[in-house]
């Protein structure tokens, strides 16, 4: 096995979920750090992580590492790296740099020096240099700087992995659309499994329920998209074809075997139309989701057995509550939502991602768990509740 070293960034709070997922895919997890997981494996490991990871934002291949004190050290590190081993000079290129406690004054200049080191190496050896394309590059180089060490990576993913291939630009309009890998993280942190009924009463474009249905049906999140590693010189097309075919066969073998109990509702009829279109693009059968237009204050359990509500309601910069619930804005609105849940969803578990730390009090419910997460740049909490009818005593642990 060819030993390669990888790093997969992910939304903060999902590191342990990602580490467990990568281990299940055959990777050797080296460390779970804030915002990602370092792991090792062969070429197949990198391909499988891109194809199957629900939590990673990208898969990066470590190609160079060295100490540095100034921007010239970064130039020399990039210039020593054998980029011609990885991609052709005709490929377009983009360089990005992130840092933590770096002594350098300008990350923009650090990025420029790494880019210069890479393209100058090509010019020295071939007489030509790659063109830069910051919008849709063929190849991406990522640099990470701490106080003394610089690490250079090749991006194997291309577009971020939360872009599963079914979301349209229309879905991304708004202040902070829920990314697919964070939606998968909400389901994992909530402990949802496909055997449990699932309901999202603020479904928007359907990210949470579509992610859940794909998981239940065994549809690999990267099954319908292209990856950056397909542009590299060491791309093993036969290996990739085999891994991709295995993923397709898994879906075909499980077709019809799983009876889904996944439901979604929203007060916005246009959002529900988008859910249906997205579900079709995501490869879901027509009956995979139960979707209806509904004011959350009038919502009823969509299934006979209690299950789990996992939702990301409008908050803060996203939208006013009025647009989604039909209720007055502010704490009174959430108090009404809490009453509706307690009156009709007895026995269900409720998980809400919100930027408002006062939400449990506004709902009139006590959070059993709270997990810090970020939705884009917005700091949030995933609150977990057990719903009891008014006047009903909470169950004791283990009962």
Automatic annotation (TrEMBL):
<protein>
    <submittedName>
        <fullName>Putative N6-adenine-specific DNA methylase</fullName>
        <ecNumber>2.1.1.-</ecNumber>
    </submittedName>
</protein>
<keyword id="KW-0808">Transferase</keyword>
<dbReference type="InterPro" id="IPR054170">
    <property type="entry name" value="RlmL_1st"/>
</dbReference>
<dbReference type="Pfam" id="PF02926">
    <property type="entry name" value="THUMP"/>
</dbReference>
<dbReference type="InterPro" id="IPR002052">
    <property type="entry name" value="DNA_methylase_N6_adenine_CS"/>
</dbReference>
<keyword id="KW-0694">RNA-binding</keyword>
<dbReference type="InterPro" id="IPR000241">
    <property type="entry name" value="RlmKL-like_Mtase"/>
</dbReference>
<dbReference type="InterPro" id="IPR004114">
    <property type="entry name" value="THUMP_dom"/>
</dbReference>
<dbReference type="GO" id="GO:0008990">
    <property type="term" value="F:rRNA (guanine-N2-)-methyltransferase activity"/>
</dbReference>
<dbReference type="InterPro" id="IPR053943">
    <property type="entry name" value="RlmKL-like_Mtase_CS"/>
</dbReference>
<dbReference type="GO" id="GO:0003723">
    <property type="term" value="F:RNA binding"/>
</dbReference>
<dbReference type="Pfam" id="PF01170">
    <property type="entry name" value="UPF0020"/>
</dbReference>
<dbReference type="GO" id="GO:0070043">
    <property type="term" value="F:rRNA (guanine-N7-)-methyltransferase activity"/>
</dbReference>
<dbReference type="InterPro" id="IPR029063">
    <property type="entry name" value="SAM-dependent_MTases_sf"/>
</dbReference>
<dbReference type="Pfam" id="PF22020">
    <property type="entry name" value="RlmL_1st"/>
</dbReference>
<keyword id="KW-0489">Methyltransferase</keyword>
<feature type="domain" description="THUMP">
    <location>
        <begin position="45"/>
        <end position="156"/>
    </location>
</feature>
């Amino acid at each position: 096995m060819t030993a390669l070293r990888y790093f997969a960034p992910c939304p903060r709070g999902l590191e342990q979920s990602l580490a467990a997922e990568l281990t299940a895919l055959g990777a050797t997890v080296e460390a779970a750090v804030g915002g990602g997981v370092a792991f090792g494996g062969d070429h197949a490991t990198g391909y499988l992580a891109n194809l199957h990871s629900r939590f990673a934002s990208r898969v990066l291949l470590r190609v160079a590492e060295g100490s540095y004190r100034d921007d010239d050290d970064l130039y020399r590190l990039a210039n020593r790296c054998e980029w011609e081993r990885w991609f052709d000079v005709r490929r377009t290129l983009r360089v990005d740099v992130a840092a933590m406690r770096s002594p350098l004054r300008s990350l923009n200049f650090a990025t420029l020096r790494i880019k210069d080191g890479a393209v100058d190496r090509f010019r020295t050896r071939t007489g030509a240099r790659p063109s830069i394309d910051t919008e849709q590059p063929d190849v991406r180089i990522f640099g990470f700087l701490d106080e003394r060490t610089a690490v250079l990576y090749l991006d194997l993913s291309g577009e971020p992995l939360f872009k599963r291939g079914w979301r349209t630009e229309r879905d991304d309009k708004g202040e902070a659309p829920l990314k697919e890998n964070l939606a998968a993280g909400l389901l994992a942190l909530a402990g949802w499994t496909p055997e449990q009924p699932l309901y999202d009463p603020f479904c928007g474009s359907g990210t949470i329920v579509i992610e859940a249905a794909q998981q239940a049906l065994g549809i690999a999140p990267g099954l319908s998209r292209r990856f950056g590693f397909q542009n590299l010189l060491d791309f093993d097309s036969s290996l990739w074809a085999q891994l991709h075919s295995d993923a397709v066969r898994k879906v075909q073998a499980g077709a019809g075997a799983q009876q889904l109990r996944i439901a979604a509702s929203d007060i916005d009829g246009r959002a529900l139309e988008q859910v249906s279109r997205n579900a079709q693009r995501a490869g879901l059968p027509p009956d995979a989701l139960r979707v209806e237009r509904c004011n959350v204050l009038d919502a009823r359990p969509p299934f006979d057995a209690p299950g789990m509500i996992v939702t990301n309601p409008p908050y803060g910069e996203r939208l006013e509550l009025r647009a989604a619930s039909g209720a007055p804005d502010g704490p009174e609105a959430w108090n009404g939502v809490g009453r509706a849940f307690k009156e009709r969803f007895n026995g269900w578990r409720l998980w809400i991602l919100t930027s408002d730390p006062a939400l449990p009090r506004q709902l009139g419910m006590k959070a059993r768990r709270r997990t810090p997460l970020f939705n884009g740049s917005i700091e949030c909490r995933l609150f977990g509740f057990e719903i009891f009818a008014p006047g009903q005593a909470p169950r004791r642990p283990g009962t």
